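Hypothesis: this fold can be encoded by more than one sequence.
Test: take the structure tokens below, design a sequence, compare later.
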């Protein structure tokens, strides 16, 4: 049921997670965090490709996490996805180029150098 899916999600420990202020005005406290995130982001590495692209992606979808980003350091892109009943809807694959805005955080401009640790 739902509790099993949320329990599985809590065990995954996403690289980064976020909550929309409308739903969670204060950052969740405690460990493990028991508030379902609105957004998760995974950073791929050769050792975790299948886990992030297949297993975690499936669990996040079952838990109905609203947004899922995958940062691919090798290809220097971020895949931006939104939850949909049939599966993840890929909204964009953003190449490294200056700053970007992506759901659910369109209000914030994110600098690529902050993501990839590069100058300029």
């Amino acid at each position: 049921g739902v509790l099993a899916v949320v329990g599985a999600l809590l065990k995954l420990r996403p690289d980064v997670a976020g909550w929309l202020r409308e739903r969670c005005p204060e950052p969740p406290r405690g460990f493990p965090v028991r508030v379902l995130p609105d957004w998760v982001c995974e950073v791929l590495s050769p050792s975790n490709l299948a886990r992030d692209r297949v297993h975690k992606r499936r669990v996040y979808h079952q838990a109905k996490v609203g947004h899922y980003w995958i940062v691919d350091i090798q290809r220097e892109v971020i895949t931006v996805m939104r939850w949909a009943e049939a599966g993840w809807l890929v909204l964009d694959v953003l190449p490294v180029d200056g700053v970007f805005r992506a759901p659910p955080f369109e209000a914030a401009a994110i600098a690529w150098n902050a993501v990839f640790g590069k100058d300029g």
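The mean pLDDT is 82. Helices lie at 2-12, 49-62, 112-116.
Hypothesis status: open.
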